Amino acid sequence: MAAAPDSYKNRQFLAVIGDEDTVTGMLLAGIGHVTPAPNSSQNFLIVDAKTETANIEKTFDEFTGRKDVGILLINQHIAEKIRYKLDTFTAAFPAVLEIPSKDHPYDPEKDTVLKRVRRLFGE
C-alpha cells in the first residue's frame, strides 16, 4: 500500500549527519539549506571527536521530526553511537540511510535497513 500523498508531498530536503568530509561533499552537491533568523535551522550536522552523543541524538530527533526532510543520511560510524535510536525509528519518512565515510568502511551487518530486510525474508 502506498503512503498517503500528505505524508511525503512537502518533503523536499535531504538532511545529513556526518563527518566533515561527508557533509562538505553533500553541501558542495547542493543539499544545504539554512533558514533565516530568528529561528535559524540547518539540514546538516558536522560531527567530530568533540561532538557529544547527546547533540547527535538531539539533531537526529530534530531531523526525523521535520516535515520537510525526505531522507536523512548518516555516516555509519556515527550511527553506531546512537544505534538504539535508529533501531527504534520505524516511520516511513524520513528514510534513514547509513552511508560510509572516507575513513570508516561500510559494514552491511550493522545497517538497520538491511537487518529489517533480512528479518522480512526470514534470514
Task: Please give a structural write-up.
- The protein has 123 residues and is of the alpha/beta class.
- The chain has a single domain (10-31, 41-120), classed as 3-Layer(aba) Sandwich (Rossmann fold), CATH 3.40.50.
- It has 6 helices and 4 strands; from the N terminus they run H-E-H-E-H-E-H-H-E-H.
- It has helices at residues 5-8, 20-29, 53-65, 76-79, 83-88, 112-120; strands spanning 13-18, 44-46, 69-75, 95-99.
- It has a 4-stranded parallel sheet with strand order 2-1-3-4, with helices on both faces.
- Helix 2 links the parallel strand 1 (13-18) and strand 2.
- The chain is globular and about 50 Å long.
- It starts with a helix and ends with a helix.
Topology record:
Layout: H1 5-8, E1 13-18, H2 20-29, E2 44-46, H3 53-65, E3 69-75, H4 76-79, H5 83-88, E4 95-99, H6 112-120
Parallel strand pairs: 1-2, 1-3, 3-4
GO molecular function, one term: proton-transporting ATPase activity, rotational mechanism
Protein name: V-type proton ATPase subunit F
Subcellular location: Vacuole membrane
